[in-house]
Amino acid sequence: MSRIKRALITGSTSGIGLAIAHQLAVAGTDVVLHGLESQQEGDKLATSFHSQHGVEAIYVQADISDPDNIAAMMSQIATQVGPVTILVNNAGIQHTAPLEDFPPQKWDQILAVNLSAAFHTTRLAIPAMQAQGWGRIINISSVHGLVASVHKSAYCAAKHGLIGMTKVTALELATKGITANCICPGWTDTPLLVEQFKAYAQDNNTSYEEAKQGLIKAKALTRISYRQLI
Ligand code: NAD
């Protein structure tokens, strides 16, 4: 029996998710693109994937901070094109603030999108992967799944949690032909960082472009002094 290779990449309308979707399509994988953009915008993107890479591509719009939307999205995909057998949990959001000022609703939202959504997509994708005895689960965590930074309590909690969940997923599915892995990217110039670059530019009275360099250098220096401390 030939393997079905159909990838859902959450949050694939921009940044890292979009790049992953392109690379999977280059490798000949059918893709399900996903994000918050309108159906019309997403359909245009899917059409461009089909013409550029010759693979089957569709777009699904769903706010994955709500588990009901995730369930609806997974069954929509199964009905429209068939089950997902490669799952890339990539969608993520950020908010930075000192712990005592961190808005509770931002905490809930970050945990929902960056961690709980991956639990829901994974649990709903497993049965089809098990049925064909093959599947791939790739979770996009972050260096902040391994180390901390100030003002990123929710993001660090979610990204650390995602690594823990990936380890459990890998153990539970190891004998079923399904692998689970986590990727921990460092700074990548995507829309996710815009607010942090803007805040740095304002705090340091510098241009947006200089802020990009400054923030990345500051982070590298923090890591060096942190290493010297331990
Ligand atoms: P991005 O802002 O370019 O893309 C985020 C994607 O998630 C978009 O497609 C957006 O539509 C989607 N999304 C956000 N909230 C959503 C919601 N409620 N429902 C559905 N979709 C939603 O960001 P990116 O930098 O490409 O980030 C991708 C992943 O990589 C995230 O998990 C992020 O935490 C992680 N990451 C990014 C960096 C970085 O420096 N950019 C570093 C480490 C890890």
List keywords for this structure.
single chain; 230 residues; alpha/beta; Rossmann fold; six-stranded parallel sheet; 6 strands; binds nicotinamide-adenine-dinucleotide
Tell me about this structure.
The protein has 230 residues and is of the alpha/beta class. The chain folds into 2 domains: 6-186, 3-Layer(aba) Sandwich (Rossmann fold), CATH 3.40.50; 188-230. The chain is 53% helix and 13% strand. The protein contains 7 helices and 6 strands; from the N terminus they run βαβαβαβαβαβαα. The protein has helices at residues 15-26, 39-53, 67-80, 104-132, 153-173, 194-203, 208-229; strands spanning 6-9, 30-35, 57-61, 86-89, 135-140, 178-183. It has a 6-stranded parallel β-sheet, with helices on both faces. α1 links the parallel β1 (6-9) and β2. The longest helix is centred in the middle third of the chain and has 29 residues, at 104-132. It is globular. The model has no long low-confidence stretch (mean pLDDT 94). Bound molecules: nicotinamide-adenine-dinucleotide. Residues 11-17, 35-36, 63-65, 90-93, 113-114, 140, 142, 185, 187-188, 190-193 line the site of nicotinamide-adenine-dinucleotide.
